[in-house]
Structure formats: structure tokens, C-alpha cells
Amino acid sequence: MSAKTFDLPVAVTLRLQSRSGRVDVIAEPRDDVEAEGDKIESLVEDSGATLRIRNGSGTKGFTVRCPIGSDVTVGTQSGAVRMAGAFGSVSVTTMSGSIEVERADEADLRTVTSTVSLGSCAGRCRISSTSGRVVAGDVGAASAGTMSGSITIGHVAGRFKAKSVSGSIRAGCGGEGAVAIKTVSGAVHIELPRGIEPHMRARSLSGRIRCDLAEGDDMLIEAMSVSGSIEVVPA
To answer: What pLDDT, on a 0 to 100 scale, did the predictor assign at position 230?
Structure first.
């Protein structure tokens, strides 16, 4: 294992790469970047706007400590990615590793077979997993997709768009943005603040459709399912 420290000018994006080892990124009060891993390699790109750090052969653990609010992009094939602390714009792509992000201003998180977990996101987030679960806490606006895993989001302040084949979709929405959901056999459960009167367009070939709020034009809800139930209820 080796460790290196890098000066980080203002408004520089960190681009981290590892092959199959676990990646831990920690945002903390500091002005530089410290990277520890297997034969750390680095390169300054985009006329100094990007600092690329690579974890050598990428088969061992990779730990990076950076300033709070850093913009970070992470790419790995099979290693899990864990990001602790508060980040700016975050982008994570992995094939089979899980993704866990504590806080970000914006987030784009994608994996194929593992779980994606996002604590909070002040702005827009995009989350997708082919067969793993998608879980988020408090987000500004969200787009989420999965084939067989479930989607669960605690609170979406703005627009919410979700798609699943067989996994369920559950979300609490603030009523400030439209909701658009498509699923084949998974159940849909949407919670709205009391007093919101949505305009609802819902269709299910064999599943039950239920809306416990008065019809109005406060927001638009579009939901489609082949066999899963669709329900919209007060929070």
C-alpha cells in the first residue's frame, strides 16, 4: 500500500479509478487530497480542471480523503464504493459493487447487480441498478430505475420519475413536481402531503388502483402498471 498527498486548487473535479478493490471517499475539513492504495498514479487533465487518481492494479483497497464539497467522479468494475461526508456533484459507476453516498449536491449513481444507497441530495439525482435495490432519503428531484430490485425514496421535493420491471416503487413526494412511474408487476405506493389535490392518470391491466386524495390540479401523477397495484395516499 502507498499514500500520496495532492494540493487541490479551487473548482477541481476529482476523478478516481480502481479495478476491483473497495473504494472509500471521505469528505472532511481539509485543503488537500490524500490517496492511499496500490501504487497510486495521478494525472492533471482539462487544463488543470481535473485531477485523475488511479489505484494502480486496482485489486486492493483505495481510500481518498478530500475537502468538504468536492466534486467527485468514481469508476470501478467490481469494487464497492462508499462516500462519507458532504460532497458537491457526485458521479459513480460500477459493474457489481454496491454504492453508498452520504450527502451530495447532485448525484448520478449507477451499478448493475448491487444496491445503491443515497442519504440526501440537495438537487437532482439519477440512481439506477439492474437487479439491486435503490434506496434514497431526502432528495430534490429524482430519476430512478431498476429491473428486479425495489425503489424506495423517503422524500422527493421536486419531480420524480421511476421505472421498474418487477420491483416495487415507494416514495414520499412533496407535491412540487410531477410524478411519472412505470412498472410491469411491481406495486406502486406514493405518499403526498395532506391537502394536495393531484391530477391523476393511472392505468393497470389487472392491479388495483387507489387514490385517497381529492382530485385537483396541484400536480400531475402518471402511473402505469401491467399487474401491480397503484396507490396514492396522504402522508
So the answer is: 96
